[in-house]
């Protein structure tokens, strides 16, 4: 029943696999969403295995920060040179899988280019802007990121300090960071790689404040890769995880950008400075939920990886002789070990199911919205917020229990656990800080 | 009341400090164990600040594994060249503090030399051996570690596979690792730094097995620093934390060592191979408890550091405007933030008190043991096991809550949290894996 049984494997592991009462192939197909998808994943896996450029010269844990970023940049070029191997229209399916195989959990210099920069161009530009930028961005002539959060401002978008003041005399915006807390802070790929960014700034025109708007801004010279005049920027350094991605900062000192830098699909500024407000739209709301359903699936996968490592280790590791002379027993046979590891395996499956459910609900709500029906919108928001919080925290805790169940070996980077934890636990903070999300759920439940 | 109030500080922080209702100097004295100790700590702090050699050329998080180990080796030489600045007889007081200031949480190539190698020589050698080795070890002519755990064996000492078989013809022991799982695995400083080790191996003489015993073994040539003939060894690589310490592995292929390599304070082997058993002793028992009381204090300190960072951040960080126009509020004023951070601060103090209590009990029991009174011994063991488990897990959880309370910034290495967590969480595994320790407590409570 198990396609993983191979001769030459550790005998304890083979014995455990022989005891399995389910078909591992059917289970794999269920996890990936069908046999066809599973087959395609295997094709991608085999392709990635065949490309020598995807190998790391030494394990990345042995590299310095600089070496790690360079290695990541080298690999991401190979990865993007080979995108014809995957179905480009299925970014969150084949694309994410392909990226995970080539770049691992350390992510890379172009993570934000694909996840935020390109989608923002596609969603926020007018037709002229799309013509100007999309081709360059897809061909990597322009590598971009999304610069919204500031050193002093995360959740409260209305208090962003960076300003973009329109000057009708030159038909330019003047981009400025009035304080140190106005520094754009955290954008992935901003540290060393991006030469462009979508910058979110407070728009001022004709002396009036019009709130935060997105602008496309060139940051570095395309030839020398040095910051342009008036732009101060750099790397914010190593993190708990995801160190192949060069998160960075940037400050603007009266930087002039053309009027057409404002992404004008919805809001517009006319040459004379007249502001044209966007039509009311609630459709952006759904995208966040979609990202959360992807994220819950990703968290489930990380917990599943940790539980797999811990379970296999527990089958192979023998410690403690219960019956004298009978030899040491597999630690998998201790109830305490089972109670520590197996619930994590069960959670991984439960979270995978939850991710499917929320995605189905998202599709239903999106369909309803096209008919002006907003009935399920609030419920969708609150369900995805609550699930994201519970799943990410349980995942973080579960990975740590799996790690601890491997004793000292779990502390070694070679076990994979430190990397899995460092990557997954970020999910407790991004896409909405967990406590803030849970407060939103509580508020909704009270109103309901 | 607060000695930390300084002009030029962030005004929010100063305002919070002014609200304090207790004397921070008295609190500091209580934490360190008296005003005299506090004063001495400050002298040591000022000395460490004055030594340029103790600085890192770049933050260690930016270094490669190799650079990190080299930097650590360089600093530990400066540290040990300056030990006259501290009271050498107070290793677990001034010594640990001095080491923490110079080497940080990353530890160093000689950590095990001081914590395990030297104390083992002092405790397990006979008088001749002490004369031969102690001077060399103190002068660093010999740098050693303690090699007990094996790749396949941690908690179950009786199943260690490395053998030391006595050959009366040459008056030598033959040290051998029969399998790959017999590889000594994890000893700190073994990877690159140590040229000697205390190796724990199963003693065989006259065809009889006498159980695990400690041997002092030269591993590397003192001039070339290359492994000696028959010895295979190296670095086991990066870990979740403590990466300035080069944990390593070693395998022995029929390595011959002199009879006097057996540390003979208690057990002996005569030249003809006659084994002399050690007199029964339970005094070694207490040492483990002593180490645990040190460890509980250390854990409390790590949690206190995390809570301090989170509390200060929460005072300075403003986010969310509750009353329109009133400006953003300090996040310290949100009840959810208080409920997240303050319990960690309270726990740090509770754990410090618990560490003092267990140390007092240890001193009482040690005194009683000298009169043959073992009445409190089992209770001491179970209290220290239980406390160690609860404190280390609550500390790990508490550090993570503090980190998450700082939002995205907590994910940056610059916050200190990833390092504090990586260092402290090791305590859930070392000095007795927490679940195993809790099972021992449960067994005792049932019997009681």
Précis, in short:
The structure is a homodimer of 448-residue chains. The first copy, chain A, has 448 residues and is an alpha+beta fold.
Characteristic key phrases:
homodimer, 448 residues, Butyryl-CoA Dehydrogenase, subunit A, domain 2, Butyryl-CoA Dehydrogenase, subunit A, domain 3, 3 domains, 46% helix, 12% strand, oxidoreductase (chains A, B), fatty acid binding (chains A, B), AcylCoA_DH/oxidase_NM_dom_sf (chains A, B), AcylCoA_DH/ox_N_sf (chains A, B)
User: What is the class of the largest domain in chain A in the CATH system?
Assistant: Mainly Alpha
Structural class of chain A: alpha+beta
Principal-axes geometry of chain A comes out as globular
- Give the termini distance of chain A in whole angstroms: 48 Å
Structure characterization notes:
The structure is a homodimer. Chain A has about 450 residues and is α+β, with helices and mostly antiparallel strands. Chain A has 3 domains: about 25-110, Acyl-CoA dehydrogenase/oxidase, N-terminal domain (Butyryl-Coa Dehydrogenase, subunit A, domain 1, Orthogonal Bundle), CATH 1.10.540; about 140-275, Beta Barrel (Butyryl-CoA Dehydrogenase, subunit A, domain 2), CATH 2.40.110; about 285-445, Butyryl-CoA Dehydrogenase, subunit A, domain 3 (Up-down Bundle). Chain A is about 45% helix and about 10% strand. Chain A has helices at about 10-20, 25-30, 35-50, 65-80, 90-105, 110-125, 125-140, 285-315, 335-370, 375-405, 415-425, 435-445, and strands at about 145, 165, 170-175, 185, 195-205, 210-220, 230-235, 250, 255-260, 270, 275. In chain A, strands 1, 2, 3, 5, 6 and 9 form a 6-stranded mixed β-sheet that branches. The model of chain A has no long low-confidence stretch (mean pLDDT about 95). At the A-B interface, helix 4, helix 10, helix 11 and helix 12 of A face helix 4, helix 10, helix 11 and helix 12 of B.
């Amino acid at each position: 029943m198990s396609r993983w049984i191979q001769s030459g494997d550790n005998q304890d592991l083979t014995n455990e696999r022989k005891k399995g009462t389910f078909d591992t192939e059917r289970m794999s197909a269920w996890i990936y969403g069908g046999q066809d998808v599973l087959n395609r994943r295997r094709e991608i896996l085999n392709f990635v295995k065949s490309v020598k450029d995807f190998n790391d010269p030494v394990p990345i844990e042995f590299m310095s920060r600089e070496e790690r970023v360079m290695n990541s940049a080298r690999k991401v070029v190979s990865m993007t040179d080979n995108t014809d191997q995957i179905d480009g229209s299925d970014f969150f399916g084949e694309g994410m899988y392909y990226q995970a195989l080539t770049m691992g959990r350390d992510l890379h210099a172009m993570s934000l280019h694909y996840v935020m920069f390109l989608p923002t161009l596609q969603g926020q530009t007018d037709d002229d802007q799309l013509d100007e930028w999309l081709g360059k961005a897809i061909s990597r002539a322009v590598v971009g990121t999304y610069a919204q959060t500031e050193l002093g401002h995360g959740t409260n978008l209305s208090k962003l300090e960076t300003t973009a003041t329109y000057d009708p005399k030159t038909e330019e915006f003047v981009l400025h960071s009035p304080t140190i807390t106005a520094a754009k802070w955290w954008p992935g790929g901003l540290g060393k790689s991006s030469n462009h960014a979508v910058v979110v700034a407070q728009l001022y025109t004709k002396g009036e404040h019009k709130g935060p708007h997105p602008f496309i801004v060139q940051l570095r010279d395309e030839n020398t890769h040095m910051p342009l005049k008036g732009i101060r920027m750099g790397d914010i350094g190593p993190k708990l995880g995801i160190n192949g991605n060069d998160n960075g900062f940037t400050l603007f000192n009266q930087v002039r950008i053309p009027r057409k830098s404002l992404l004008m699909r919805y809001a517009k500024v006319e040459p004379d400075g007249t502001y044209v407000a966007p039509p009311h739209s609630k459709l952006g709301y759904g995208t966040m939920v979609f990202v959360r359903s992807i994220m819950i699936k990703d968290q489930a996968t990380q917990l599943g990886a940790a539980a797999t490592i811990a379970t296999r280790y527990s089958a192979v590791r023998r410690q403690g002789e219960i019956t004298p002379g009978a030899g040491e027993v597999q630690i998998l046979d201790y109830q305490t070990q089972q109670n520590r590891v197996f619930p994590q395996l069960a959670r991984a499956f439960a979270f995978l199911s939850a991710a499917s459910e929320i995605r189905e609900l998202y599709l239903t709500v999106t369909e309803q919205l096209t008919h002006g029906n907003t009935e399920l919108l609030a419920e969708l928001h609150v369900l995805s917020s609550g699930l994201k919080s519970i799943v990410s925290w349980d995942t973080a805790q579960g990975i740590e229990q799996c790690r601890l169940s491997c004793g000292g070996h779990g502390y070694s980077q070679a076990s994979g656990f430190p990397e899995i934890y460092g990557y997954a636990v970020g999910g407790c903070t991004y896409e909405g800080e967990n406590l803030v999300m849970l407060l939103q759920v509580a508020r909704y439940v009270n109103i309901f």
